[in-house]
């Protein structure tokens, strides 16, 4: 019986892995779009963008919609053209990009001179495709300059993960000894 169960487990695991490989990217819904904004003068680093998100974008959104969105507490550095983050890189003419947003709460895309903010918390682990929302006077989409992730979402440190894994494996070992 054990061999039959292990065979089923292996088969189901293989099917799950193959299904993940065939997953396609989704798009983001309009209700998660926090608007296209003209950046303020001065610093354009991630700290300035975080301050702008918390002091301007979120209060404007929260005044118009319920429920209120939480403040962001940290962000990544700007991910520029040619940088590789989570296996994604982009060039100077990019007008659409597919990104993994899992584990983050907000995403800011800079299309030429405009900032586009999105609320991305709770989205599935499938990548999301974002299209340029900034257009020039000839109605042509503007290219991506950089993007930045923000969020209060925290990831447990590696030590806690190893500790929990060790407790689980130790519990299984004790349980299996008890069955013998």
What is the terminal separation in angstroms?
A: 16 Å
Give the integer mean of the pLDDT values.
77
Strand content: 15-25%
How many helix segments?
3
Question: Any idea what the shape is?
Answer: elongated
Uncertain residue segments: 8-24
What pattern of helices and strands is seen along the backbone?
HEEHEEEEEEH
Explain what this protein looks like in three dimensions.
- The protein is α+β, with helices and mostly antiparallel strands and 180 residues long.
- It has one domain.
- Helices cover 34% and strands 20% of the residues.
- It contains 3 helices and 8 strands.
- The strands form 2 sheets. The chain has a 5-stranded antiparallel β-sheet with strand order 2-6-5-8-3, with helices on one face. A 3-stranded mixed β-sheet has the order 1-7-4, with no helix packed on it.
- Strand 5 and strand 6 form a beta hairpin.
- The radius of gyration is 21 Å and the shape is elongated.
- About 9% of the residues have low confidence.
What characteristics describe this protein?
180 residues, alpha+beta, five-stranded antiparallel sheet, three-stranded mixed sheet, 3 helices, 34% helix
Describe the SSE topology.
Layout lengths: L1 H20 L4 E2 L5 E5 L8 H19 L14 E2 L15 E4 L6 E6 L2 E6 L8 E4 L12 E7 L7 H22 L1
Parallel strand pairs: 1-7
Antiparallel strand pairs: 2-6, 3-8, 4-7, 5-6, 5-8
